[in-house]
Sequence to fold (254 residues):
Amino acid sequence: MTDFTVVIPARFASSRFPGKPLALIQGKPMIQHVYERALEAGARQVIVATDDASIEQAAQGFGADVCMTSSDHDSGTTRIAEVIELRKIDNQEIVINVQGDEPFIPPTNIRQVADNLAQFTHYPMATLCFPITLPEDVLNPNIVKVVKDEHNKALYFSRAPIPYPRADMKVSESHGLTLEKLSYDYFRHIGIYGYRAEFVTKFGQMRSSALEYCESLEQLRVLEHGYSIHVAQAVDAPPHGVDTPEDLAKLNAQ
Fold:
């Protein structure tokens, strides 16, 4: 059985949804739902990493271990690198980054990432994907697409349609660019990462990359610096995360 640590990066400032980790879902803060899913996955320890006192207070209120971090981080992974340094986490510890806006992520998927990283030791990083079934999702820039090879090694991540479905794309004056059908197996990236602690530290020392900046996707820093990412299909269908207040309203209306 794989031992692993979950770190949940949670920041208050968000351009689309300020204070998102504290938003109530079924009467509980979103961050509490994420914390509970991590515990259900069997994590050896779960740490909430934040730079905000109100998130710290709320998390401590439901019994979470909280690590206060700098407000200068440009990604969740660099925030986790600070946690590893502050808590002196062992270099070989498997650390899972579960994002704070995934309140209903299946615990089985969290454990899957840890187990995959333990099994495929030549990969410094692991993540998940899931099939896209709706053509409009391929064109949605808020849904990150991933292309992988036959050995589940990531080739690229993008907000754009990859690969580009040239034969199936249609352009009209009334509807703009549309995709009428899916002739290729498209996958959306699930925003969960696993890595050994020493690689998180190394990530924090890497310079930001042009691809990362262009797409606003931190995992592209890893690829552009020549490292490999293992991408498996999630064992359970993950719900979409909460990106906007509208997403939250839909959840609470269920």
Notes: Residues 5-253 form a domain with the Spore Coat Polysaccharide Biosynthesis Protein SpsA; Chain A fold (CATH 3.90.550.10). The chain has nine helices and 13 strands. The chain has one domain: 5-253. The first helix runs from residue 30 to 40.
